[in-house]
Amino acid sequence: MFGKIGYAVRTEQFTQSDFLVLAFNNAAATELDERINERLKELLPPDQRITTKTFHALGLEIIAV
């Protein structure tokens, strides 16, 4: 997953705001967030990160709109 996201950002096919990584639980979402943003920190602007959420958090965000 890190490689695909990194490749897409490096080749400028997508920007970091185009990604949403989904996980089933909070622990997995936290781990993915740390791993992705740590490994890709050279490719990302200093103040921006790849968004990582759980399916429930995404659902709540959609319903709240």
Concise synopsis of the structure shown:
The chain is of the alpha+beta class and 65 residues long. The protein is 51% helix and 12% strand.
Describe this structure in words.
The chain has one domain. Helix content is 51%, strand content 12%. The protein has helices at residues 2-10, 26-39, 55-64; strands spanning 20-23, 51-54. It has a two-stranded parallel sheet. It is globular, with a radius of gyration of 12 Å. The termini are far apart. The mean pLDDT is 90.
Keywords for this structure?
single chain, 3 helices, alpha+beta, 65 residues, 2 strands, two-stranded parallel ribbon
Topology summary:
Elements: H1 2-10, E1 20-23, H2 26-39, E2 51-54, H3 55-64
Taking the sheet with the most strands, its summary is: 2 strands, parallel
Order of SSEs, N→C?
HEHEH
Helix-strand makeup class: alpha+beta
Whole-number average pLDDT? 90
Q: What is the rounded distance between the termini?
A: 29 Å
> Which outline best applies?
globular
Low-confidence stretches: none
Number of helices: 3
Kindly give the count of domains.
1
Helix residue percentage: 40-55%
Query: What integer value in Å does the Rg equal?
Result: 12 Å
Strand content: 5-15%
> How many strands in all?
2
Question: In what order do the strands lie side by side in the largest sheet?
Answer: 1-2
